Amino acid sequence: MPETLTTTVQAVHQDSNHRFSKQAVPTIALQSGLGVVGDAHYGAKVQHRSRVKANPDQPNLRQVHLISANLFAHLATLGFQVQAGQLGENITLTDTAGLDWYALISLPVDTQLNFAQGPVLQLTGLRNPCVQIDNYQKGLLAAMLDKTADGQWVRKTGVMAVVLQGGTVQAGDSVNVQLPAAPHRPMERV
Fold first, then answer.
1. How is the beta sheet containing 35-36 ordered, strand by strand?
2. Looking at residue 140, what DSSP letter applies?
C-alpha cells in the first residue's frame, strides 16, 4: 500500500440517540477529542452503552465510525441490502484509489485521515459487530464476520477513530489517508 492515498466522502450521518442506524445529514461537525457534535457517541469518555456499563471512565476511542461504501456491494453479493448510514457509521467513504472495505479495515492503527475542510481523524481500531445487527437483518452478523486462513477474525463493520483536529465534513470532500511511521500495528476491535 502506498504511503498516502486519497478517497472521497460519499455521505455523512449522525443521531443524537443510541439507535442502530444514523440519519443522513448534509454536514457533520467534528470537535477535537470529542467526536461528532450532536451524535450519541460524542464525548471524551466512552459513550457506547455496553462499554459505559463496564467502565464509564474509559477514553472514547470510538468517536467517529467510518465504512467504505464498497462494503454494501459486498453484502449484496451475500444477499443483504444495506445502504449508507444503516450500519451506524458517521462517514461513508467511496471506494477510490483502492480503498475498498477490506483495505480500510486493513489500515494500521494511528493512520490519519485528513479531510478537505481541515478535520483530522486518527484510526484507533475496528468496530466489532454485535448481536443488534441481526435485529436489523437476520443473518447479517455472520456475514460481517469472517476468518483468515490462519484463523484470525475479519470484522467487516468498518473502523473507529478519534478527532485530532475539528471542522466540518460533507459529501464530496476529499480525504488524504496518511499511514503512520513504520512499524505498523494492525487494528484490533475497540
1. 35-36, 27-31, 167-170
2. H
Query: In order of start, what are the domains of the chain with their CATH numbers?
Result: 6-178 (2.40.33.20)
CA angle 2, 13, 75 (to 5 degrees): 65
Choose the weakest-confidence range: 1-5, 119-123, 127-131: 1-5
Residue 113 DSSP code: E
User: Does residue 124 carry a pLDDT above 90?
Assistant: yes
Q: Are 75 and 145 in contact (CB under 8 A)?
A: no
**Is 75 strand, coil or helix?**
helix
* Rounded (5°) CA angle 26-99-115: 40
List, for residues 131-143, the tens digit of each pLDDT value: 889 999 999 999 9
